[in-house]
Amino acid sequence: MTQQKRARVIFHVDMNSFYASVERAHHPEWRGKPLAIAGNEAERHGIIVTSSYEARRQGVRTTMTVHEALKICPNLIVKPPDFDCYRKTSDLLFQLLRQYTDQVEKASIDEGYMDLSQRASGEHPLALAKRLQQDILTKLKLPCSIGIAPNKFLAKMASDMKKPLGLTVLRKRDIQEKMWPLPIGNLIGVGKKTEEKLKRIGIVTIGILANRDQSDIFQRYGQNGLKLWEHANGIDARPVDPDAWDRYKSIGHSVTLPQDTRLIETIRKTLDGLSDKLEKKVKGEHVASYELTLVIRYSDWKTQSKQFTLNQPLYAKETILDSAWKLFCLIWNGQKVRLLGITLSEFQPISGASKQLDLFHYKEDAKEEHRYELIEQINDQFGRGSIQSASTLLSE
Predict the structure, then answer these.
(1) 75 within a domain of the structure (yes/no)
(2) 365: annotated binding-site residue?
(3) Are 236 and 152 in contact (CB under 8 A)?
(4) Would you put residue 211 in left (φ > 0), alpha (ψ -120 to 50) or beta?
């Protein structure tokens, strides 16, 4: 008799209000008090990056200015972000998860997937999740929610259903009751613009999308729409990939100039072209970078490089070019340039890239986001390269 194949058991571990929770782990006196992470707190011009659940209950929201937040929550504790501390804490978290299984995929600084299908102990998944949740709380002083499901998408949906300190099981046979009645905006992957489009054709719940004709959804919204339809029906064949995070240790491009030059116009144009290539690469991989390295090789073959670590994620050409140009102006010694190179590293999935916003750039960033999303949607539906930058077409 053939042995019956064991069902997949996937956990999605999602840390609750991670930055604020890390701060409170280091400052026990802040527990139970409203706390927000924001920039430029002294000038009251910062934007709230994240906040504790106590602050959220009083109306504090992400992207709200510190000044606005203090108006509705006068006792709010405001702390500037400490990204180095958050990254170190994240490393400790994933070390702990790997004590349970080597099948751990880091999805962002504060969330990850675990494949526990082959667990040797035979322990019930819910009991195992409770033990893991308590282990994280005891050892790291951090709360988390865990979703338990037969695939990654349903596990992530499950972890969102109860916060903080939630434990939710979502099997395929449960989706009609637990997931389909939810508003379409609750389906992971549906942003505000997509939600508006779906609602215009009567798709107001996840269940309505799941029961729409598959070919109609594909015709209207392309591959992205088809993926949403599959997810609404609980379909997701992606494996937990332990190497996914390390696969993007660095992405770089360099170019040797046709002739050695000091011409600023040529140098700037070269950096522009490199930034354009990097934008395509990181967006194709759906990641954002927090570290940029610029390399300059001079006519005498001597090479100079400078690394720049950022609190804001890089994934758009304009911001990559801006950072590279600042580094160039900082380190260039005035000699003729033979080669230029830009390398991005310290990646994070773009869905989880937390941006430290400030009052002076927030509106500008919001405008850029709309444009990038629109270009991505068109290229996804009609094929890569349907819309390209002018500099790319000119170089071709």
Answers:
(1) yes
(2) no
(3) yes
(4) alpha
Whether residue 301 sits in one domain with residue 217: no
| Domain count across the chain | 3
Per-residue pLDDT reduced to its tens digit, 299-342: 999 999 988 877 677 888 998 999 999 999 999 999 999 999 99
Place of tokens 């006792």: 75
380 is in an annotated binding site: no
342 and 268 within one domain: yes
Number of H helices, E strands in the chain: 14, 12
Tens digit of each residue's pLDDT (9 = 90 or more) over 245-257: 776 677 899 999 9
Reported residue count of the chain is: 396
| Domain assignment present for 194 | yes
177 classed as catalytic: no
Q: How far apart are CA 332 and CA 324, in angstroms?
A: 12
Q: Is residue 391 part of a domain?
A: no
Adjacency order of strands within the sheet including 337-349: 250-261, 337-349, 287-298, 303-314
Strands 167-169 and 144-149: parallel
Question: pTM for the whole thing?
Answer: 0.70
Query: Could you give the C-alpha distances from 288 to 57, 86, 280, 343, 371, in angstroms and in order?
Result: 31, 17, 11, 13, 17
Which residue's entry shows tokens 């959804």? Answer: 217
CA distance 174 to 155: 12
Active-site residue, from 23, 54, 105, 111: 111
Range(s) of the domain holding residue 226:
180-232
- 8 with 155, same domain: the answer is yes
What does the pLDDT average to over 159-171?
95
